[in-house]
Design goal:
Number of helices: 9
Order of helices and strands: HHEEHHEHEEHHHH
Distance between the termini: 64 Å
Structural class: alpha+beta
Number of strands: 5
Shape: elongated
Strand content: 5-15%
Length: 250
């Protein structure tokens, strides 16, 4: 974080300093798992967007809204109000795919009920929300910043926040794709191991493919082990750790 600007300093950055800052951020965000990426996104975002007291990411998956990597508990509480009402800067950013900036939530007529509750219950007077374009499955996300000050976010904060949100979306999309590739690779490897174990059992016991797979499945169920774990044992030992009468019954 030492190479990032401190809160409130982004408006005075030169073009070269801004380029260097985003280069540092891009390197800091890429190469992590999803949760670590989300945590990095909100932490670096607080350094980038001046005036923010807290930040978090709202993720919509399967029709359910959840708050991820909040930097303070007030993020969860304010988001809970938005989710309950179906109204607020974050909700609109998710739906309309645009950025939303508030000056004073007590006076903002776009979200009168949410604004009053956020201000009176949590002391949050300003918010800045950006849609994160992930393009991975049906998941939708938004990056949100919260402040206890009125007019905490100016045009410069909105501009820099929008640029940052683009980097954040790329990093999060990369993390999600990497996880998907890892799962697929694991599934392929698992299927190969199961297929090899089926072949071993067919050769040893002179049974059909279906019967060999049934043996693996039964051993998995009775041993309370995953199917691919039983398959690995068969590949390594050439035998199935299960009573002989099961094999004979086939």
């Amino acid at each position: 974080m030492s190479n990032l600007p401190t809160s409130g300093s982004t408006s005075s950055l030169t073009q070269l300093e801004l380029l260097a800052t985003f280069t540092t951020i891009a390197r800091a965000l890429i190469g992590k798992d999803e949760q670590s990426t989300l945590t990095s996104i909100v932490r670096h975002g607080l350094g980038m967007v001046g005036g923010a007291h807290a930040a978090g990411v709202t993720v919509v998956a399967g029709g359910r809204l959840t708050t991820r990597a909040p930097t303070a508990e007030l993020v969860n509480r304010v988001d809970a109000i938005q989710y309950e009402l179906g109204s607020g800067p974050c909700i609109d950013a998710l739906v309309s795919q645009a950025a939303y900036r508030t000056g004073d939530l007590l006076l903002d007529q776009r979200w009168p009920v949410f604004g009053r509750r956020a201000a009176e219950q949590e002391g949050v007077l300003s918010m800045l929300s950006f849609r994160l374009f992930l393009e991975v499955g049906d998941t939708v996300a938004a990056l949100n910043f919260y402040s206890r000050r009125r007019d905490a976010f100016d045009y410069s904060a909105e501009l820099l926040g929008g640029l940052y949100a683009t980097h954040a979306a790329i990093a999060l999309r990369t993390a999600r794709l990497a996880a998907k590739v890892s799962h697929l690779e694991h599934a392929l490897s698992t299927n190969r191991d199961i297929g090899a174990a089926v072949g071993v059992l067919m050769a040893v016991h002179k049974i059909t493919r279906e019967q060999a797979f049934d043996l693996l499945r039964i051993a998995s169920q009775h041993g309370h082990r995953k199917l691919y774990e039983v398959a690995l044992d068969v590949i390594e030992t050439g035998a199935l750790a299960y009573p002989d009468n099961v094999v004979r019954s086939h």
